[in-house]
Structures are given as structure tokens and as C-alpha cells.
Amino acid sequence: MSLEEFHHNFRSDLQTIIAERVADGEGPFPSEELVFAEMVMEHVAETGICDAPTVCHWNGKVGNARLRITGYALSSDETALDLFVTHYFGTNELNDLRDSDATGTASEGVRFLFRAASGQLDTKIDPTHPVRDLVATIRSRWNEIDRLRVFVITDGRTKTKRFSNKEVHQKMVAVEAMDIERLFRHTEGKPRDELAVSFVQSLGRPLPCVHVPDPDADYEYALTAIPGQLIRDLYLRYGTTLLEANIRTFLGNKRAVNKGIVETLRKEPEHFLAFNNGLVLVCDEAAFERSDDGNLGLSFLKGLQIVNGGQTTSSIYFASRDDRTIDLSHVMVPAKIIILKGSQDEARERLISNVSRYANSQNAVKMSDLSANRPFHRELEKLANDTWCPDGATRWFYERAAGAYNVMLLREGTTPAKRRKLKEMIPPRRKLTKTDIAKYHEAWRGKPNQVALAGEKNFKALMDALDDNPNLVPSPLDANWFRAMIAKVMIFKAIESMIKTKDAKEIFRQGYVNIATYVVAVVSEKLGDRLDLQQVWMRQGISGGLRDLLWDWAVIVNAEFNRIAPGQQFSEVAKRADTWVNVRAAEFPAPHGSIQELR
Prior knowledge:
The protein is α/β, with parallel strands linked by helices. 46% of the residues lie in helices and 18% in strands. The radius of gyration is 25 Å and the shape is globular.
């Protein structure tokens, strides 16, 4: 598929989503541009580039300077903030966006950041606008925020994807374009293509190494030592995306290995190379060149993943972030780099999985930690493919692998008519990702504050819970479980949809997903087995009586959020354990009238 075809298909998907929302009477997304922004922001989050995003459109002026944002993503510890600003063409033809225009758009977001941190926006923003909470967070957390990025999201094509950093109050702000070409690369290639480092640009020279080529093997090998500051910068830029192929993530400083790392960083940084076991990395591409002294060095890596040494990587980052006295200038980290060869993706991914498995085998690792080996996802994918809705013509879709829905459309939708028929059979709104399933499942299991952590954190919590108690779901998964799971999805979506309508805007101003999550948790706790989920499945929706009850309960949850933490971001309040305690203790009216789904 060409870039132009991808652009055409993306616009087609956009129009389908808009038509679905118009039919549902939703109000907060009145423009194509904002729906486009939401689609791209969700994609950026799904690929692990940012945390869960919030659509939040605001524009204004301070003097002659124009300020604007379309959305943002704030990390759960409030130390990383991404702002999104749109440059939307909205045409059927693919347009080129000049770098000067892209940086001009980015400047609107950078100026917003500067004015928010300076406290100059308080009088400029309507007190009821949800962006006010973001401004307050930026101002109060400015000293703790250590990663700032502004993304220009556009349906055009930019020549440059990463622009020069901007400085705001002694902090560097990275500026990137998430254009249609970059989205296309994610769909056609791998999200880890984003993970690249130029040692020549970062260090001013190639990184000295020992290179072991082997023309007969499916990989090459390089041995080197990476400066600790560069490790920190890579983690700051890419976060846990660097560690996706790693079995374990950061376990906290209470583990002996991490304590030792921190102590060495503090007291003997020059001995880190001698004391630490080092990293094992895999990459899709590598380049070598001679340095000034004539020795061979690594100049570039692309598609890199740290498959062993995740604790070392994250410990270096968090220790240096939390203790400013730590000096990384003398820290070197031993690294073994495996450069993948061959063109077959399945063979490459199998090699990565095995490298990760055996590189981590010196410590106890459950086989279930390797997500590729989890039967849960394979069984759920099969059930979604085999279980037709009651109309016999449509079904749901489970994305066991990121981008699988688009791959299916590309593979089977070889003509416009076939693609249209596929989207009628499996509409985009019936696509479920792994993090979606974790959200709906854990909300129903009474873990709304965990769900608020969003994305990979909540997904990992579900996987850990399944490891600890496999009986949480039937083994193997069966059709009854699947239908009930989809019913829970539809209840969640019904709540979210009704509180996002035009008529609801006077009551519900922010945190739609958070409110829906808490309402579902309340429904599960108070109605539980009384709710006939099979009826919801058969109707592929909910009755008017149940809708009225969910509305009443959503109003109460919203009021509790405002009472508990007036003026604060719901997305942050939702993460607190005491929020769930307070919501559970609220008075919810008993079901009244006729609710067909109640036994």
C-alpha cells in the first residue's frame, strides 16, 4: 500500500467514526480536526510513545502571541508532559507541510507551556474550561517535570520529524511532528522503528566497540560500553518503550540489585563498569564507521530494544532524577548488542523472544511473563474471530498485536468495495486492543483507581493478577465468557457516550473515561450477578431503564469527584485509592421502574 492509499483509508476511517458519533448524539467532538487529533493521540499512546492522552482544545492570545493546544498526556507521576497541537488540512489530497509551518504550529504549544509555567494564563481561561486544571498542574509541578515534548499532529507530510529543541524556563522542550508518513510507517513497519540513536550526534564521535560479523548467522554481534548519561537520555526520551521486549521492568530500589546500582552511582560511579552485569540490546539496524584514531565504532542504531538490563536502565534514570548530586559523567555501562539480520518478521521476533528469555534466565522468570506465550490473548483473538453478533452479520475484533485491525483491512480489503464491506462487518468502534480489554475487565473487577493508571500499567496489573490467580477467567476462555465480556464493554461505552453528549456538558466537563470506569465498578459491586449480561449481548446495547440508572449513578460519581478534589484533574484524582473508598461510600439510588436486564 502506498502512502497516498494509507492517507485515503485513514480519512475513510475518520469519516466512519464521525458518522457513528453523530448517530450517538455525541457533542464534545464537533469537528473533523478534533476527531483526527483523538485518533492520532490514541495511536501515539498505543505505540508506547506517550501516556494516556486527553483531548483538550484551547486557543487564546497573550498580547500578539497566539497560544493553542489540542490535547496533552501527563505521566502518572507527573514528571513527563506531552502537548499536542494540530495542523489539519482535511482534504482528500495528501499535502506537504513545510518545516517552517510545522515549527510555527509547534510554537503555539511552546508558548502555551511558557505562559502556563509563568502563571500568566489564570485570568485568560474560563474557570469552567478543563484546560484550567492542566495549567494549574504545570505551574505547581514545574520543578518536578523533567521531560517536555510538543507534538505537531498533522494529516500532511513533513520533511523533518524531529526539530530543534526549545527552551522554556531552563527546561528543554523536544519538538516532533507526528505526520501521516510517520503513522504510515507504524502501520507498515514496527513501532520500534522510532527507537533510534546516533552516537555521532549524541557523543560527537562513534562509540568504540568490538564488532563480530558472521555471514552465516541470523545476527551480528557488537560489544561496547555506553555512557550513563546517554542511557539516562534514552530512557527520558523513550521511557518503558525501550524495555518492551524485556521480561521485567523497574522493580523499585528495595530490590538488592537496584540498591547496589544506586549505591554505586552515588559512591563509586567510576567503578560502575566493573560492578554491573550490563545490558543486552537487540536492534534492527546498525552502522559502523572509523573514528579519528582509526578504530571501528558504532555510529547508529535503529529499532533498538533493551532485552536484559531493564533494572539497570531505569535505576540510572530514576536515581539521577531523584538525587541531583549523582554525577553520571564517569558512569559507563557494559553492553552486548545483537544486530538482527534477515527479512522475515516472525523469525526476528522469535529470536528477540528467545534472547530475552535466556538473557534473563539467571533470575527466576515465569514463562507467562513472555506475552507471546500467553494463551489468554490467542484464545481471546480466536473467540472474537469465531463469535458472531446476534444479527449474524457483524462481529468484534481483538487486536492481539498492535495494528492488526489495519493489517486485516489491508490484506482483505483489496478494493474499495471489499474494504467498505469489511468495515460494515467489523466497524472500528468494535475493535478492542489489549489495553482496552484490561480497562473494561479491571473496571468490572472493582479496580477503578488501577484502571486510571491507564495503558500498559493497568494491562500489566491484569496480567500479574492472572498469574497470581488463573481462575479469574475460565481456562480455556469460552464463548459465554466472551459474550459477557463484550456486554461489560458495551455498558462502559454506553456510560461514556451518554456523558459526552451536548446535553451532558453542563454536568460533565472532564474525565469521561474516569467517570465511566468508576460507574462500572459501582455497577459491578451493587448489581453484580443480578445483571443479565447475556441480555446486553443479545441486544448489543442496553435498555432505556438501565440507561437512566447509569445516568443517575454517573451524576453521583461526578459530584463525588468534585467534592473530593475541587478544581483538580479527574484523571489524577481517579488514581488515588481513597477516591474509590469515597465513591463506594456514596449513596446511590436503588434501581427503580422496569430494568429489563435485572434478574
